Amino acid sequence: MKTTGNLLRPFGLIIIAILTLISTSYSQDDVIMNSKKFSRLLRLIDSYYVDSANVEKLTETAIVKMLEELDPHSLYISKEEVEKMNEPLKGNFEGIGISFNIFKDTLLVTTTIPGGPSEKVGLMAGDRIMNVDGKNIAGIGLKNDDVFGMLKGEKGTEVKLKILRKHEPELLDFTIIRDKIPIFSLDASYMLNKETGYIKLNKFSATTIDEFKEAMTDLKTKNIKNLILDLRGNGGGYLNAAFDLSDEFLPNDEMIVYTEGIHNRKRVYRARNEGSFEEGKLVVLINEGSASASEIVSGAVQDWDRGIILGRRSYGKGLVQQPYQLDDGSVVRLTTAHYYTPSGRCIQKPYDEGTEEYRSDLNERLANGELFSADSISFNDTLKYKTLFNGRTVYGGGGIMPDIFVPMDTSKYYQYYNRLRRNNIVYTYVLDYIDKNREELNRKYTAFDKFNRNFEVSEDMIAEIVAEGEKKDIKKDEKSLEFTRDQMKKEIKALIARDLFSRHEFYRIINSDDKEILKALEVIGNQEEYITYLTEDLTINK
Predict the structure, then answer these.
(1) How many CB atoms are located within 10 Å of the residue 246 CB?
(2) Fewer Cβ atoms within 10 Å of its own Cβ: the N or the C terminal residue of the chain?
């Protein structure tokens, strides 16, 4: 029998190959037939339609609608949008290297990027750009897109600026040579206490792993033993960056993720390098805005029982997109595979009800109470999996469920403060305050620690913000104001710190009473509790 089986096996393989060839042939025939059908329709419209028709626009509309029928993440990107869309993930763009704000109809420099071309020639925070290449730009209703169009450009090209600076009687002339400017994916890294470090990533870009390693090198000089990795609101990016980051936490050869699709055979990605944090307590923070690459990292950490996942259920995007360039320079990002966590979970949430229903998922979570109570979450028992080291229960079919649930805070008393934020009252006030007091602040607070200890947002400052709100028809809400007063003071102080020092200092202040971070610190500080979450099956099962 064994001999017969071996003899028959080649014939079986030949039959499978023939059937595959026939199936592929039929599929290609269908594509050719339907492409001819669509081409004929376009020719008929162009030749016989009663009015003039924009054939290019019709084609693009058809492509968009076609992709919407496939899944929510396959999409068409016009040639004009391609470069703009890719820029944040490349990790750099070419320009003069400033952060700016349009303040009182004038382009205000809020910071210069360290080592960038503007800093090198002496441009300073607080400078006002009045003229670009001989053209006045002050008081003309400038928009952000206008600024990007004027100041961005190819590396090595020149731009001439006229600057208004306090205490200078005349405009100052600057000639700046554009260069590559980094776009950071790492928002903050610092020590929360003597043993626990904190790193926050806003996306997964081409430079993410280098930024992470640089941050870890710095934290190791401060004797880091534990790490809180903040992926809240991180919508993903390059999958390779997710693989590389996961590799920092997992021993060699442990699976990070695998991908598979009908036209894409199974491909397994494993840890292959010695990571910078393979030992030590690890807590990963996620929420409903954590997607794709963030879910790869948190899924790998959870499946290998490497660390604790804390927060709320992640977004649920487990589809891999591959970009394909079309003849005119536009791009189709086509879903080609699903990705699966090491335990075999596909965490893609369902999309069989259509794109509109899919996009309203977060509203559904809000309505059914999931964001406020773990008891409102239900899982499908057929999608039950076990972690690979300790055998804890985890679920597929719709995001990563954290080991520790922390509810969202959406108190109605934030409504007044949120209106002030949305109408840009708070940040405009901060810009004005720094503009008027920059010299005194720089003289008084030469280091962040001194600023953090001694600077206080006064009641007068709050009153001025309230008054500015009333000018914009935002009526003072005394009860709401009393409830959010401390939050307002903390955020104003953080915004001032960001402009005076850096984005790291913004988060050091804003995170000072963050309940997810405080819970993570509590668990890290309690060895028994930390081990319990990693070894006992505490997952909700409805």
Answers:
(1) 27
(2) N
Q: What is this structure's pTM?
A: 0.84
∠ CA(377), CA(383), CA(311), 5° rounding?
Answer: 40
Q: Is the dihedral of CA 436, 439, 445, 446 positive or negative?
A: positive
Contact predicate 401/385, CB 8 Å: no
pLDDT in tens, 442-469: 999 999 999 999 999 999 999 999 999 9
Q: Do residues 347 and 400 make contact, with C-beta atoms less than 8 angstroms apart?
A: yes
105 CB burial (10 A radius; 0-12, 13-18, 19+): exposed
The class level of CATH for 186-408 reads alpha beta
d(CA 480, CA 419) in angstroms, rounded, equals 11
Burial class (CB in 10 A: 0-12, 13-18, 19+), 257: buried
Annotated catalytic sites, by residue? 292, 303, 317
Tell me: the pLDDT tens digits for 389-433? Answer: 999 999 888 899 999 999 987 765 688 988 898 888 998 899 899
Q: Which residues of 151-164 are buried (b: 16+ CB within 10 A; e: fewer)?
A: bbbeeeeebebbbb
Domain-by-domain residue ranges, the chain?
A: 34-70, 92-182, 186-408, 412-511
Q: Is 2 exposed, middle or buried (0-12, 13-18, 19+ CB in 10 A)?
A: exposed
Buried-exposed string 22-59: b where 16+ CB fall within 10 A, e elsewhere? eeeeeeeeeeeeeeeeeeeeeeeeeeeeeeeeeeeeee
Cα–Cα dist 519/406, whole Å: 9
Q: What is the model's pLDDT at position 87?
A: 64
> Distance (Å, rounded) from C-alpha 255 to C-alpha 296?
11
Determine how many CB atoms are found less than 10 A away from the CB of residue 262. 7
Given a contact cutoff of 8 angstroms between Cβ atoms, the answer to whether 315 and 401 are in contact is no
Measured in whole angstroms, how far is the alpha carbon of residue 237 from the centre of its chain?
7
Nearest to 343 by CA among 393, 303, 309: 303
Residue 202's nearest CA partner among 325, 54, 84, 91 is 91
Evaluated on CA atoms 177, 211, 195, 403, the torsion sign reads positive
CA distances from 535 to 229, 328, 366, 379, 542 (A): 21, 55, 30, 21, 21
Q: What angle do CA 359, 363, 368 make, to 5 degrees?
A: 130
Decide if 393 contacts 309 (C-beta within 8 A): no
Q: How far is CA 278 from CA 271, 275, 281, 492, in A?
A: 11, 6, 9, 37
Per the CB < 8 A criterion, the answer to whether 169 and 191 are in contact is no
Structural contact between residues 133 and 178, judged by C-beta atoms closer than 8 angstroms: no
Higher pLDDT, 324 or 199: 199
Alpha carbons 224 and 192: distance in angstroms, whole number: 10
The pair of structure tokens assigned to 478 is: 């005394």
Q: What token pair was written down for 501?
A: 């020092």
Whole-Å CA distances, 393 to 332, 396, 538: 38, 10, 8
Cα distance between residue 167 and residue 412, in whole Å: 46
